[in-house]
Amino acid sequence: MKAGTRALGVAESFRGESSTTERSTVAGAVVRADRVVDGLGYRRCTVGGTDATDAVCELIDDLGRPDVRYVLLGAIAPAWFNVLDLSAIERRVQQPVVSVTFEDSEGLEAGLEDAFSGPALEARLDRYRRLPERRPVSVDGETVYVRSVGLEPEDAADVVRAFTPEGGRPEPIRVARQAARAADSYANALLGE
What is the mean pLDDT of residues 22-44? Predict the structure, then answer.
């Protein structure tokens, strides 16, 4: 991959007390394959809500970066089960979308069933069940779990590896997570928390 190829990493941070009325900070970091950070943007989404997909799409629109070739998401259900719709994001931004998670699990269905009921549960389960299959990918001796829309699984694995210079976390996601944490900390400081 060329050194100047850009990916947008997206991650979120929430450091308040757990409540469905709370907001989480969503950060986006444009990072080149050679690790140069080339832009940052922010949005908010509801903890326990269903607006994370819109927040990600609005963040991408706000950045206005047609040079971004890939969107790398650092979670599939940020902000306490605010399940992302990868296909909707891919349609909106017209770029491949890759979700990278870092722990092996049995999936989210049991957690969703414990946390929600009725229409709230059904909406989240429907979105979750429509996600592409999660596949393990070996990166620098570590295993990450990848879902992709707009790329074949092998190509998605190559993108993840190309943007992971060391360890198992792609650089755009790592930078976005740091940016989200810093912004969330700053917002809490402004509120006196």
Answer: 96
Q: Is 6-190 in CATH node 3.30.2170.10? A: yes
Q: Concatenated DSSP letters for the chain?
A: --TT-EEEEEEEE--S---TT-EEEEEEEEEETTS-EEEEEEEEEETTSS-HHHHHHHHHHHHT-TTEEEEEES-SSHHHH----HHHHHHHH-S-EEEEE-S--S-SHHHHHHH--HHHHHHHHHHHHTSPPPEEEEETTEEEEEEEESS-HHHHHHHHHHT-SSTTS-HHHHHHHHHHHHHHHHHHHHTT-
Average pLDDT of 153-167? 96
Q: What is the pLDDT of residues 73-82, one digit of tens each?
A: 999 999 999 9
